[in-house]
Amino acid sequence: MVSYFLLFILFILLPFLPGIIEYFERKDDQPLEIKQDFSKDPAFFGKSFNKILTQAILERSKKISEDTLEIILSSGKPESLRIIKDTVGGEQIKEIIFAEGKEVKTEKPLEVYKEMIVKGNFTVNHTSSVRSLLVFGDLKVKSPLEVVRWIHVEGKVLIKAKSNLGINFYAEKIKISAPCVFKRIFAEEIVIGEELKEETFKQEASYIKGTIRSKGALNIKTQDKKLVIEGNIISNEDIVAEGVWIKGDVFSHRGVIFLKGVLIGEKGKVKSVVGKKKIKIGKNVKIYGYIHTEGDGIIEI
User: Fold this and answer.
1) What's the pTM?
2) How far apart are CA 240 and CA 285, in angstroms?
3) What is the H or E stretch that residue 104 is in?
4) pLDDT digits 0-9 by tens, 277-291
5) What is the dihedral of CA 160, 162, 168, 169, to 10 degrees?
6) Is the torsion defined by CA of 100, 91, 165, 76 positive or negative?
7) Rounded Cα distance, 244 and 241, in Å
8) Dist CA 56 CA 8 (whole Å)
9) How far apart, in whole angstroms, are the C-alpha atoms of residue 37 and residue 67?
10) How far apart are CA 168 and CA 148, in angstroms?
């Protein structure tokens, strides 16, 4: 009778046995190792497409006409690649465009259903739309530009007309002086409106050292004096800033709003501005590094 009772108790305790052992021995009480150096490459789209395109041209291209090649990309489907020189526009183009000129420009409105690659500099003088844009020189946007997917520019960018910057925008340096929408932007320097200088904040500035964390909304504005925050800003709610130099990262689970006169990061140091629901940026804002949102990214200037 006693043996049956002990067996009954054993069956009751059996499901809890692993938990009891873990409680006393604590095998998993140390945190998992995380590689802190892991990061996404903001130039991934442009680099990947350039690699695929170059390989396709070298290995599997077939001449259709004097200015058109047939290439096979990673999808395995044949694609037409049209080669042009210095000017483009005035038609709806269904092929991939490769512009060989050093100074390429639009001569009429342009609509490209697929990718456009420019070997040199590219100037958008007329209303244009492309699926993706790869420029190996500088990019100047003087008329509205609509990009469906991504922009990759090896040189500098100047945007002077209302534009849609796609889901990923990469360049060496970017200056924006017109309203735009975006998802992700990366550059060594992103200047919106007039360029801010670090020296402007160093004169009669107040300093806050360390990271600021908040579960509620943060409203950081200054009146006469400038404010320098030597750390990160992290909040579960909206972060609103004006007239402040934040040397660290800015992260919000909701929105980030820079009204005017905001400087993020330092020259040569990549920092991030992340607003999961939205990011709004006003005039005279400078960011060293990366801007990202899963919601609405708006530049109001």
Assistant:
1) 0.82
2) 13
3) strand 103-106
4) 999 999 999 999 999
5) 0
6) negative
7) 7
8) 70
9) 45
10) 10
